[in-house]
Amino acid sequence: MRILVIDDEPRILGFLARGLEAEGFTVDIADNGTSALRCARTNHHDLVLLDLLLPGVDGLTLLQELNRDRPDLPVVIVSARSDLPTKLRGFGLGASDYVSKPFSFEELVARIRVALRHANRVDGEQVLQVGALVLDVARREARIGEHAAQLSDREFRLLHHLLEHAGEVMSRERLLSEVWGYHFDPGSNVVDVCVRRLRKKLGANAPIETVRNAGYRLAAA
Predict the structure, then answer these.
(1) Predicted local confidence at residue 117, as pLDDT
(2) For the residues of the chain, what is the DSSP string, one character each?
């Protein structure tokens, strides 16, 4: 597995490169957004670790570009910015996970492996369909009839999970745990924000139903 580590702090960049190589990963490094984007477009990577405060191209802009080029590429943000609006912005632009600095290296490696396992699992599928809703796994694209929508990584994961549990009421707490991970603040409205974005992208026929005081359900028909 090949990981691109992007951080403008030489100490952190070196620490992560040495640690990940010791874990068996092949590591490329970049200390600014411009060279990072060039490296990402030149080489194939299985995952990206991304700092947000970068010279050149800033981290969120870089994330947007990476998601546009390869929507299937897992991107884990590792940043000192830990406020909720920045986290939500990162997830909205396609981040797979968000780790705040300072961080535990062991926890970071665990999250990397989870992101890689998830990417490999869904890559083995081609298409999921419930009723008129079709999810193209390879393209990260949802279709209802002639209407097609490209999804960010988090939107894709949420819709994929709802499809796997079609007809089942999924509580916000369960979605936070199973899609975002237990570490995410259970008091946040991140699930509702992501559902609103999905409905907007899917259009008027979006089959995601709100179950009052319970959560969400994907209509099975």
Answers:
(1) 75
(2) -EEEEE-S-HHHHHHHHHHHHHTT-EEEEESSHHHHHHHHHHS--SEEEE-SS-SSS-HHHHHHHHHHH-TTS-EEEEES---HHHHHHHHHTT-SEEEESS--HHHHHHHHHHHHHHHHHHHT--EEEETTEEEETTTTEEEETTEEEE--HHHHHHHHHHHHTTTS-B-HHHHIIIII-TTS-TTS-HHHHHHHHHHHHH-TT--EEEETTTEEEE---
